[in-house]
Specification:
Strands 1-2-3-6-7 form a 5-stranded antiparallel β-sheet, sandwiched between helices. β4 and β5 form a beta hairpin. The chain has 3 helices and 7 strands, in the order αβββββββαα. The protein is 29% helix and 33% strand. It has 161 residues and is α+β, with helices and mostly antiparallel strands.
């Protein structure tokens, strides 16, 4: 799979819920994991590989990969933390984003079984970043206008090289 780069239109579209939990979905998820690992990412959402399925994968600290299908955040901590974020669809660009330190997410696994998971630290960050992708939101949307314009100007320069 190829990673879609900003400013591709699909990165701004909302995804549609997955309804068929079949072999094709399992193959798609496995291809996403392979693409994420190959791109040296720690998270990847379906729009980043040109699909409007409501799916993302995340690398856990223990090396395992978590799969979230039709995810929804149902709780967040009051405590927020700044952390430098990047994105496989905006390669080479990083900026600090403030997000809740912990979240509770409910989703489905690849077999269609529902689960609920409390995430904190880096995994909570990944879940929020990737779930934003499913809503057409990018990490640059959290930046001030000045920071976003500076970052995108640098990104365009890098693309021309």
């Amino acid at each position: 799979m190829e990673i879609v780069l900003y400013p591709a239109d699909i990165l701004r579209q909302k995804t549609v819920p997955v309804t068929d939990f079949d072999g094709q979905l399992a193959d798609f998820v496995q291809a996403m994991i392979t693409t994420m690992v190959g791109g040296r990412g720690i998270g990847l959402a379906a729009p980043q590989v040109n699909s409007l399925r409501s799916v993302f994968v995340a690398q856990e600290e223990d090396g395992k990969t978590a799969v979230f299908i039709n995810p929804e955040i149902i709780g967040t901590s009051l405590e927020t933390v700044p952390y430098e974020e990047g994105c496989l669809s905006i390669p080479g660009m990083y900026e600090e984003v403030v997000r809740p330190e912990a979240v509770v997410v409910q989703a489905y696994n690849v077999k269609g079984r529902p689960f609920k998971r409390e995430c904190s630290g880096l995994l909570a960050r990944i879940v929020q970043h990737e779930l934003d992708h499913l809503k057409g939101v990018l990490f640059i949307d959290y930046l001030s206008t000045m920071k976003r314009e500076r970052l995108l100007k640098q990104y365009e320069k890098n693309l021309k090289k």
